[in-house]
Amino acid sequence: MKLSDYEFLPGNVIENKDPEKIGRVKASVANLFDNNVVPPEAMPWIYPLTFGGFQHYSLMEQNTKIWVIYNPNQPEEYWYIPMVDLQPSTKDKIMVQENSEVLMHRMGSDNDDSYIFFNDSDGLNIWNGTSKIFIDAQKKIALQDEEGEVSLNGGKVILGKEGSAQCMVLGENLQKLLQDLGNNIMNLGTLASGNPYTSHLGQPLIELGTKCRTAANDILSKTNKNS
Question: Which run of H or of E encompasses 144?
Fold first, then answer.
C-alpha cells in the first residue's frame, strides 16, 4: 500500500450520528457519492484517520468540510481528515488565543461551542458554552459560569464571583464546633440547675445545648455521614 494509490477528495458531512459511536461520518463527495443521487442510507460510513485510536477524533458537525481519502482499488475503505476552513462564515468560530494550543473544538449553536485547550497562563481549560473549568500549574482548580465561581486554591474552597468571593466553611470542623458548644451549654445548664439562684436557667440551657448537638448531627450530607 502506497500513498500514491490513494486519492484526496473534498467532502461535506451530511450525517454524524454514528451508531457505533467511533467517529464515523457520511459525506457528500463529488464524483464519488452525491447525496442528490445516492440516498444517505446507501452511503458508506467514513472512518476518522487518527494516530491514537478513535478516541482522538473531534466530532464533525453536519456541513463540516473534510478531506475524504480512498483507494479506487479498495472501494470498501474510506477515511477522512478535517479540512481547515477559513471561510468568512466559519472563521469567527475558531478559538484564537495567544499561545494557546487547541486540543479539541466542537462547534455548537449560538455561544455553545465546546473547547479543550492549553496555554501557559491559564493551564488546561475546558469550556462548554459559558461554563468553564480551569486547572493551572499552581494547582488551582476553578469551576465558573455566568452566576459565579467555585475554586480550590491553597487548601481553601472559595465560592462567589471575583471581588466578592468567600471561603467555604469546612463541614466537619463546624460540626465539631457545634457539638462542643452544645456540650458546654448543657454542662452549664446542669450547673445552673444545682444553684438556687440560677436554677430557673438550667432547663432552658440544657434544651439549647441539646438543639446545638442535634443541629451538629444533621449538618453533614448523608454521603459524608456514611463514609
Answer: strand 141-145
Residue 119 has which C-alpha cell?
496555554
**Looking at residue 88, what is its pLDDT?**
46
DSSP state of 92: G
Give the DSSP letter of residue 73. T
Q: In one letter, which amino acid is 12?
A: N
How many CA within 13 A on the CB side of residue 10? 6
- Asked if pLDDT for residue 170 goes beyond 90, the answer is no
Does this model's pTM top 0.90? My answer is: no
> What gap in Å lies between CA 64 and CA 133, rounded to an integer?
27
* Kind and range of the H or E run holding 125: strand 123-128
Question: Residues 86-134: pLDDT tens digits?
Answer: 554 554 555 555 556 666 666 666 667 777 777 777 788 888 877 888 8
Instruction: Give Cα 209 to chain centroid, integer Å.
Output: 44
Whole-number pLDDT of residue 167:
61
Residue 53, pLDDT > 80, answer no
Residue with cell 445516492: 38
Torsion over CA of 156, 160, 166 and 169, rounded to 10 degrees?
A: -60
Task: Determine the residue type at 158.
Answer: I
